[in-house]
Design goal:
This protein is mainly alpha-helical. The chain has 13 helices and 2 strands, in the order H-H-H-H-H-H-H-H-H-H-E-E-H-H-H. The protein has one domain: Ferritin, CATH 1.20.1260. Helix 2 runs antiparallel to helix 4, helix 6 packs antiparallel against helix 7 and helix 6 packs parallel to helix 8. Bound molecules: Phenylacetyl coenzyme A. Phenylacetyl coenzyme A (FAQ) binds next to helix 2, helix 6 and helix 9. GO terms for molecular function: phenylacetyl-CoA 1,2-epoxidase activity.
């Protein structure tokens, strides 16, 4: 009976139908989504930190306003995603945001490796917009077509906002690259720092990606890690050329036959170290979030007390 239901489910999603919160779904589908959506939400809220580092040092009021708006957008993305994740909660499957967030604070749930790198100069803010948001969009445009309705719909709005983020980053770098020699060098160093970590955002190579098969079967992932990474390289290299910057990969070259850029193997040891909690800023990011939760607990408690009081009087 269960096998029949699973087969029916797979056929249903294969026909591009969306699954909604109250629909029946296999347990491993629910589990896969809670894992991915909550990790995605954690990435959005931890991802606010590297950029927040530069709010008070943005070089002009206009830059500061754009950066503030971008970071607030990331908080909003986190909220939609925690909300989408919560729709999957039911007996045996805890998906409440307090719980999933706590898992992240305890180092039990992942967030994107990219946010464990520090932002050392203003040019890094440009590189994050251009490369990190650029890579995020590449992945999230695919996710707009994923089979779970609330996640797919959240992606539509998130992608629109990410494309503004990507352009504000590229524009920062365009300005720096048209500036003094020193500014251009600062932009080059930012690209050198963020190139490989940005490529790692797409995850391990396809043959080392344990979740891919199931994710593809259930139409959560619609394209493989390597195929998205390749597309990202293909669109980003000409953008670097336009800026007059060089990609820090001596093996990078265009293959006329395939129409794609070929590039070096990624530094996977570094990727695994970052995932194991040993990246340059892992500890700092978690400490910041843990302290923020402690210091701001009174705000949450006050809001809850106020809501309870309101409920009593109405
Ligand atoms: N970092 O079997 P796979 C943003 C983990 S965008 C850390 O291939 P899967 C916007 C993976 O979770 C960034 N962990 O896994 C923004 C799994 O571990 P698990 C967030 C990684 O799920 C911009 C294990 O490795 N975007 O935040 C990474 O099929 C600027 C094996 O990997 C999303 O989360 C990594 N890079 O494919 C915000 C998109 N890669 O869970 C602020 C949604 C892999 O079994 C500023 N997620 N792992 O313990 C996805 O599309 C997928 O989860 C992938 C990984 C593609 C990330």
């Amino acid at each position: 009976k269960i096998i029949d239901k699973n087969t029916e489910f797979e056929a249903y999603v294969a026909q591009e139908n969306k699954i909604e919160p109250k629909d029946w779904m296999p347990e491993d589908y629910r589990k896969l989504l809670i894992r991915q959506i909550s990790q995605h939400a954690h990435s959005e809220v931890v991802g606010m930190l590297p950029e927040a580092n530069w709010i008070s040092r943005a070089p002009s009021l206009r830059r500061k306003m754009a950066l503030l708006a971008k970071i607030q957008d990331e908080a909003g993305h986190g909220l939609y995603l925690y909300g989408a994740c919560e729709t999957l909660g039911q007996e045996g499957f805890t998906a409440h945001r307090d719980y999933t967030y706590e898992q992240m604070l305890q180092g039990k749930a992942k967030y994107s490796s990219i946010f464990n790198y520090p932002t050392l100069s203003w040019a890094d803010i440009g590189a994050i917009g251009w490369l990190v948001d650029g890579a995020a969009i590449m992945n999230q445009v695919m996710l707009m077509g994923n089979s779970y309705g609330p996640y797919a719909r959240a992606m539509v709005r998130i992608c629109k906002e990410e494309s503004f983020h990507q352009r504000q980053g590229y524009e920062i770098l365009m300005t720096l690259c048209r500036g003094t020699q020193e500014q251009k060098e600062m932009a080059q160093r930012a690209l050198d720092r963020f190139w490989w970590p940005a490529l790692m955002m797409f995850g391990p190579n396809d043959d080392a990606s344990p979740n891919s098969q199931k994710s593809m079967k259930y139409r959560v992932k619609r394209e493989s890690n390597d195929s998205l990474r390749q597309r990202f390289v293909d669109v980003t290299v000409p953008q670097a050329q336009y800026l007059g910057l060089s990609i820090p990969d001596p093996n990078l070259h265009f293959n006329e036959t395939t129409g794609h850029y070929e590039f070096s193997e990624l530094p996977w040891d570094e990727f695994h170290e970052v995932l194991a909690g040993n990246g340059p800023a892992n500890k700092k990011r978690l400490d910041t979030k843990i302290n923020a939760q402690k210091e701001n607990r009174w705000v949450k408690e006050a809001a809850l007390a106020f809501a309870a009081k309101e409920e009593k009087t109405t």
